[in-house]
Amino acid sequence: MKTKLKDIAEVIRSKNAGPYELTFDIIFKDWDTYQTACDKKIINEEIIAKLYHIPVEDVINIIEFKPAKAIKATIVRPMASGELGETDVYGAQQHAPLVDLEVEL
Amino acid sequence: MRELRVLSPTAILGYGFPMESFEEGMKRKPHVIAVDAGSTDPGPYYLGAGISFTDESAVKRDLTIMIKAARENNIPVIVGTAGGSGGEPHLQGVVDIVKSIGQENNLEFKMAIIHAEIEKEYVINKLLDGKVKPLHPVPELTLEELEKTERIVGQMGLEPIVKALDEGAEVIIAGRAYDPTVFAALAVKEGFDEGLALHMGKILECASIAATPGSGSDCMFGYLSDEDFRLEPLNPIRKCTTLSVAAHTLYEKTNPYVLPGPGGILDLQETKFYQETDNIVKVTGSKFKPSKVYTVKLEGTKKVGYRTVSIAGTRDSIMISQIDAIIQEVRDRVQDNFKDADYKYHLDFKVYGRDGVMGSLEPNKEITSHEIGIVIEAVADTQKIANTICSFARSTMLHYGYDGRISTAGNLAFPYSPSDFKAGEVYEFSIYHIVEVDDPYELFKIEYVNVK
Questions:
Q1: Closest chain B residue to the Cα of A11, Cα to Cα
Q2: A contact test, residue of B250, B327, B364 with most A CBs within 10 A
Q3: B117-164 pLDDT per residue, tens
Q4: What is the pTM (predicted TM-score) of this model?
Q5: Which chain B residue shows the shortest CA-CA distance from A29?
Q6: In what residue span(s) does the Acyclic terpene utilisation N-terminal domain sit (chain B) (predicted)?
Q7: Residues whose CB is less than 8 angstroms from the CB of residue A4 and which lie 6 or more positions away in sequence, other chains included
Q8: Could you report the per-residue pLDDT of B10-39, keeping only the tens digit for each?
Q9: Which residues contact B306 (CB under 8 A, 6 or more apart)?
Q10: Domain locations in chain A?
Q11: Taking CB atoms and an 8 Å cutoff, what residues of chain B touch A52?
């Protein structure tokens, strides 16, 4: 079944993890979907790299955090927080491509 | 079973809190009131410029309530990362506020001031000894970057704060500190488990952000025992749920199972969250694992120039369809016009409505809106050059005769006069590294003042 991430997630957010990393949290609505999402690895390094047009090496990790029904991805910031050319000092608005991501469950 | 109770009034000192929530917290007889006052999140400027990102009046309001309540109950108040960045000017600003609170309210107490600003010379020696390491993905530190660095702070661990408590401090104003330390220090001094204390601190540092609905300006209460800790929001409209608390453990972290801090890691692989009541969550299993070598994280920023910005918009479909070419032509005109002046500058055009928010990460570069916002930005070695470049780019773009132009009166809508804003000094992060220290107190001198 094809679905959009925003339809199965309760929270999709991005934030700095320090000035040199961006981290994305996807918290799912229910346990069954979360389990399927983990089993099918719908969020993986290749998907994140493709979505943000970055090399796979810049995806630092993908972590399943069961206590929060969450999958987390962290990437190298394209530039450090506040560097010249920066567009989002807090990194709080970089989640957008995930919201409309189509996934196969 | 013994219990240690901690009141966290607000996520950042100066963000405020409702008095009702604070009073609910005091009814629960806390052993300590603690608050985190800073972060690197607002970017590199505040550390470099020595300025706080919170407002002095708002900080004084929060601290007055905290210190008065703490003195009435004879419990300590602990503030971490004073002044937002925890350097000397930041620390001094908060110390002055605390002194005035003491005088204006006829309060007497012993205040500890824990310094966290680090001498450049110290870091140079450590770097030459090979004891400064980058945290991935930060580049290696070079002497050149160090030389340019304006201000360096170290992120203190629990030890200096525990020492200040041991030495009888009633109000502790700490410079840059690992966020959970101010909440965990009294517990660790009393012999409670460091892992549970630090994990509780990690959640309390954001106060009610870990509740649902979340808020950064409302109080949270922590109860620590020898086996677990519990979290309770103090406003009846909020609840702690296993999900809201677990989700907060993820927040702003690369890996929620392994949280590195001064002197070791917080290991949450066996952490479990239980819904104890409708609004209280119990947490067990969090462990602190000391590392072989004690390391402290350093943060430093360097000045890279002065900024001038101009904010404008365009509503012309012909102009919008050619925006990239127009920007390039304006860049070329600026460069050509000042080619003899040998100015070094950074000129940037942020196009809102296309990729103003995401920059290089934006997957959809097509403009589909009827209007776009353009922020013209110049950064140069002096404010005067930045003004010159921004002004010239702005006027060139305003009157630029691009291909197919039929609106010959002007290309930009400015919401303000003056149209250009001098934004002052610009800083960038230059140090975000760890340094090996001989002992946890090495970098953090404690000074005592009797306030009366």
A1: B247
A2: B250
A3: 999 999 999 999 999 999 989 999 999 999 999 999 999 999 999 999
A4: 0.95
A5: B243
A6: 59-209, 240-395
A7: A99, A100, A101, A102, A103
A8: 999 999 999 999 999 999 999 999 999 999
A9: B379, B380, B381, B382, B383, B385, B386, B422, B423, B424, B425, B426
A10: 2-95
A11: 361, 363
